[in-house]
Amino acid sequence: MNKKLIAVLALVVIAAVVFLNRGGKEQRSISGLEPPVQQAAEGGVQLEESGYSVNITFKYSYEIDAVVLSARSYHGSSLGDRLAPKDLALGWGTVAEYNDRIDFHWSQSGRWYYWRVNSDTDLSPVGGSGGVAKQSANNHIIPADDSVKKQLGRVKKGDHVIITGYLVDLRGEKPDGSYFTWNSSVSRDDTGDGACELIYATDIRILS
């Protein structure tokens, strides 16, 4: 066997190891993840961004322990993109437990998350489509500081994360009177427009 062939085979083996260690865990299951915890909170923060005076109002303290089903970054110049540069579709409960055994197809676009399966009967272990809705959510993440923003940038599909912070409502106003509002869901039972969580994240831990 010549040296060139040996080198090619070595590269193939290395690529396979990287895939197994990184990509291979993407459609990942984790059991025992409890629903997010929230408690009524007061306070908020004020900041200036993209010509807006922004008021972020804390509604509930929030901690979510979940598997990342999908991750999507947004690089636009809008206030929403500047404040929340990344959305995370997160799952817990039986959705997280069966994520690698059910043929889920997760995706994100336009600040929404989407999922599908080949057959509705595949969803029986998680309680049907209603179970998916109650045990997964799209989350707009507003990092509280540069350190949290850097950590958010590292989060990828398949990670086990714990995010701590607040569910918030946001209002930005410009001197000309134009404004931008963005409100968080505070329920795990809602679906459709307005059902995403808007999280002011004070800490993001990537456990594995």
Shape from CA axes? elongated
**Mean of pLDDT:** 89
DSSP helical segment count: 5
Enumerate the spans where pLDDT stays under 50 for 5 or more consecutive residues.
3-25
Between the first and last Cα atoms, what is the distance in angstroms?
A: 39 Å
Tell me about the biggest sheet?
Answer: 5 strands, mixed, barrel
Strand order of the largest sheet: 3-4-7-10-8
Q: Round the Cα radius of gyration to an integer and report it.
A: 19 Å
The total beta strand count reads 10
Order of helices and strands: HEEEHEHEEHEHEEE
What level of helicity do the residues show? 10-25%
How much of the sequence lies in strands comes to: 35-45%
What structural category do the secondary elements indicate?
alpha+beta
